[in-house]
Each structure stands twice: as C-alpha cells, then as structure tokens.
Amino acid sequence: MNSNRITQLFQIQYPVIQAGMIWCSGWELAAAVSNAGGLGIIGSGSMYPDILEQHLIKCKAATDKPFAVNLPLIYPQVSDHIDLIIRHKVPIVFSSAGNPKTWTSKFKEHGIKVVHVVSSAKFAKKAEDAGVDAVVAEGFEAGGHNGREETTTMVLIPMVADAVQIPVIAAGGIASGRAMAAAFALGAAAVQIGSRFVASVESSAHINFKIKVIDSEEGQTLLTLKELTPVRLLENKFYHQVIEAYQQGSNKEQLANLLGKGRAKKGMFEGDIDNGELEIGQVAAAIREIKPAAEIIQEIVAEFNHTIEQIRHIRY
Question: Could you tell me the residue range of the domain that residue 159 belongs to?
Fold first, then answer.
C-alpha cells in the first residue's frame, strides 16, 4: 500500500486506525495494532489517571511504533490526563466529546498531533479552524457514543471531505477491506475501526462480551438514550429495559436513574451481558471470529488491495 496523507502524518505503514474504546482498548491492543503497521489507540475515557499512566508505560515498552490516546474532553480529570500525555511524550491524541479549541494549541506546543472526532461537516470545519491535523468522521452505524444527527457513514464522509482541507478518517460500520475501499472512494484517507477490534485476542473486553458480539445478528443494535448522550447498544436485558422505559414515557431523570453508574464497565469489562451496557456497532453482525489484531489488519489490507484491483479498470 502506497503512502498517503495519514500514513505520512502518523508515520505508520497502513492507514488503519484502531478506535479508542472504553473498557476494550488498553495498552495490549494498542501495541498489537501499532506493531502490525496500523495506529493503536489507548481509550482513556474509562481510566483514572494512575491507570492511564500504567497503560502508557506498558504500551511504550511493548512497541517502538507510534500510538495514540483517545481523550474525551468532557472527562472530569481531563487536565491530569493531558499532563500524563505530555509527560510520556505520546505522539498523537484523538480528542472527542468536547470543544477541540480548548486544548489543541497546548498539544501542538508540545509537538503532539491532534485528531478530533466529529459527526457532521459543520463540526469538522470547526475542528479544522481549531487547528487539528485531521478529523475522524464517524457515522451513525458506529458503536458506543455517537452523534445525534444519525447521518450514515456513506453520506457523512463525502460531505466532510468536501468541507475541510485536512485529512479525513472514516469511521462507523467499517470492519473489512471492502468497506475500507468504499471509504476511500468517498474521500477518506484512512479508516478507524472499533467493533472489529473488540473481538480481538488483545482487546481488554471480557470474553463474555466478545462472544456476545460474534454471536450477534442483524438488527440487534440500537442507537438510544439521546436525552443523555446517544449510544449504540447491543440487544440484552438492559437494552430491553431501555425500550420499555421509553414506551412508559420516562423522562431524562428516569432514564439517567436506569442507566446508573458503571453499567458499561459491568457489561464490557466485567462480562455481565444481561445487566451491563454493551456498546458495539451495527457491523457486529458481520463479525464471526475472535482473532489476533495483527491478523485482522492483514486481512483488511489484503481485501482492500484486492477490491481496489477488481474495480480499477471498470468503466461505463
């Protein structure tokens, strides 16, 4: 695969980025992806500062390749996380869930590249104006916390690519080389993949959650809880409790009480697949095996190259 704007920007072999997912993407997964030629990301949103520091130390010991940290800007101890990122010389930060203007300049002062996650062309332009180096345009299909707009990846990527001059990374519903080729055709320079890496050997997700993902079928995820923050969930007992709450006309406070605290950790990290919050994308229905991260990347890249070769000479 030839070099492009993203591989040059991050100094990586393949324009394949592993999403920074809470409870699923610790140092082991990030290091495995980076060692395989992609860009691994530590998901710091579920980590206290001392835990993040442990992951940074272990990741740096496990890879000499670039890696990143995903930083939700609404995290209560965000300044502590930023201090750790700077102190440990993390080369790249993927920020989300907040205003990129707040911290981007500080990162740039320390030579750290910044990417911001957006769900609309409007916010992509604002992120570009804030000085970020690239944006992740994440479509409605994605797992976890999502945009309220419900714009699909296929609609979102070309709109964002037309709106900004910086590189665009496509996310949402991408778990194969064919999907990666489609994203490139729409104007992306790389893909960010989450759900496929949940079902990897190195993912820190509980084995119960991994099995639930590979056993899932079409139509078994739902984007919900928009009154709090939109999240895509996999069908389980809690999922049906959410549906029932809406049917009963529950208000924002009642939904917050139902969600409670620690439910995502309970489901994805501790393995309570009945009562936990299981965050995964629509593409989970296409995932059928738990594999090492390096094997996942090689399969995606090989299929991407094959797909591009197949369509190269098509003319109408």
Answer: 5-205+286-311
